[in-house]
Model the fold of this input.
Amino acid sequence: MGFGFDEIHGPISGPPETDSNSFTALLELPPPQAVELLIKEDFPAKPMPPPIFPSNIALIDRASKFSIYASPDNSPDSTAILPASSSMKLDLVKQEPLESDSHPNSSSPAVSNQSSKSGKRKEREKKVKESNKKSKKVAANEASELSGEKLPYVHVRARRGQATDSHSLAERARREKINARMKLLQELVPGCNKISGTAMVLDEIINHVQALQRQVEFLSMRLAAVNPRIDFNLDAVFAAESGSSIDNSYLGMFDPSIWPEGQINGSRQQLYQQPLHFDGLHQPSWGREDDTSNFISPEDSLLSYDSPPNSASLQSSKLKMEL
Amino acid sequence: MKARMQNSSSSALLKQEFLKKWINGLQTYTNTKKEMTILDRKNAIKLSADIAIASTRNFSTNWSRAVMADVSKNVDGSSKIVTEKILGRKETCIIKCSKNIMRKSRLLAHRKRAIRRTIGRTSVKAASAIAKELVKKRTRVLKRLVPGGKQMNEICLIKETLDYIASLQVQVDVMRNIANAADQCLDSTERSLL
Done:
């Protein structure tokens, strides 16, 4: 794990024999400990000695006062080193993204040195903001407060830009969140299960959303084209409890007031049908407002055809919809 | 299997709620005596459906709040009436407040985005960078699609998309069922006439 860190060792003067070790130890130790604190995972105890971070002793002393997040099995040194490592000293600042990486990515930390400062601050701010992060965030928070009062460094809290450093723990946690949600989305959108890769899945999701929105448009146009006056019997719809029969019960909302007795009912199984008013096309052959009084008679005639459960809703109120 | 049954029953409840609210909203148009063109009718149907489906979320989601904010932005007399009908008086005031909140957050987001852009972009042409660009493009498109998506960060966006897709599905299902039922009735009555 220490492959990329050699170039960073320049500005740091520390115990030479633990140079690479300290970073890796720092890398491996805090996140697992942090993970333990929150998620309570069983993590193999690191056999390494508490890392001696090449920083000032004074910083360590100061940081040790802030080690509220120390877990019982955590040695105070390691947790004290954590805020010390994230102190405001410029050269040390660059180390933090590295130390938080438990799964090193391919991008070399040297590249991200420039932006790691801003990225780190953004990460710290991000860590500050997101509340369900690990306690390392608390450490970072503490460190920033610590630095704010002790060091002449001006701590900027505003977000400075995208973190291009992918080594950060916060970035990883955030990505895990996103991936978990993407999985849910994949299950929701049909046909996404086999696709791998975020971009393609997002493509499918976008297509699905667009298709649904277009369908809403078409359906509303289609409904607008339907003849204007429709009487609904909503209660017949709502009487249907289970999901399967709700589709049938939609038909229960409409009914021609004149229909051949057994024919139509046989085709739709358990429907209660209400008289339907038509304007426009069928104006000559249908009565309109006069038919409202005739509701009851068709209802009674329908009772004999319909199954008893729906008949209870026959007498309930009807809604008129005119457009 | 059990989960699917539960899902279907909960979606059935959702469909009922949506249908009720939608028809409620449509009723506001029954009193207008003027002739509506087919386009007007379509807009009315769509508007009521949108408000209804957004209100089934009880404004716990961002997209529903964004939908209501957009609706109340078009200070159209009929839309206000429909909103009041579906939601009830006191909620319309809440919508007005949320409209201001959304406006402020939009300004904030603009400022943040401007700051972000001035920082500069890396020009690393690694494959991962290309993939990231693709993903970014897609998320930008998605942000445009989902109502209120412009102000959300990625995590929020995906969560909202989930909810929005589910609600859209409910809306489409209900509307399609009603349209099919209406068409079937029309066909059957036409057949009976002949």
About this structure: The mean pLDDT of chain B is 75. Chain B is about 80% helix and 0% strand. Chain B touches chain A through 71 residues (CB under 8 Å). The longest helix of chain B spans residues 154-193.
